[in-house]
Write a structure and sequence with these properties.
alpha+beta, OB fold (Dihydrolipoamide Acetyltransferase, E2P), five-stranded mixed β-barrel, elongated
Length: about 160
């Protein structure tokens, strides 16, 4: 009850806050910059995103023979044949369930060998042989440390 009888001072009316006006030119310039950045991000992401198919997916695709595609797989053992006269290399790629012969006529990566994972880019010929224009080899992700005895022997 005591609190009810105590007179509270009236709050002085506050002066209305002045709102800062942002010039319209700044707003338009900001929107233009944001739009340009968004456009560049979307345009470059779509251009650099390239997917690859498995051998099974390539064989199931009905429109893939007319366009260049990427196919991933592992180089099958004992299938690499180099033709020095034609400057080509022939090998077989496997995805575990299916295999596909590949012919490539460019520079071969240093780590290219049987058992390495590769991505070949090109077209599937009518004879079932994949004509590759690009050959990408995946680097092994495992690094093995040298045995302690081997390191000491090498330094002596």
């Amino acid at each position: 009850m005591l609190l009810d009888s105590v007179a509270r001072p009236e709050a002085a009316p506050r002066a209305p806050r002045r709102r800062r006006k942002i010039p319209l030119s700044f707003v338009l310039a900001g929107l233009a910059v944001a739009g340009a950045v968004l456009y560049l991000v979307l345009a470059n992401t779509g251009a650099s995103a390239e997917y690859y198919l498995t051998i099974r997916e390539l064989r199931a695709c009905t429109t893939c023979s007319a366009r260049s595609v990427r196919v991933a797989g592992t180089v099958a053992p004992n299938t690499i044949v180099k033709d020095a006269a034609a400057h080509t290399i022939r090998f077989t790629v496997s995805d575990g369930a299916q295999t596909m012969p590949v012919v490539y006529g460019g520079t071969v990566p240093d780590i290219f060998q049987p058992g390495i994972q590769v991505v070949v880019e090109g077209k599937l010929g009518g004879n079932g042989v994949f004509q590759a224009q690009n050959l990408l080899a995946k680097c092994p992700s495992k690094f093995q440390s040298a045995t302690p005895g081997a390191a000491g022997a090498a330094s002596q």
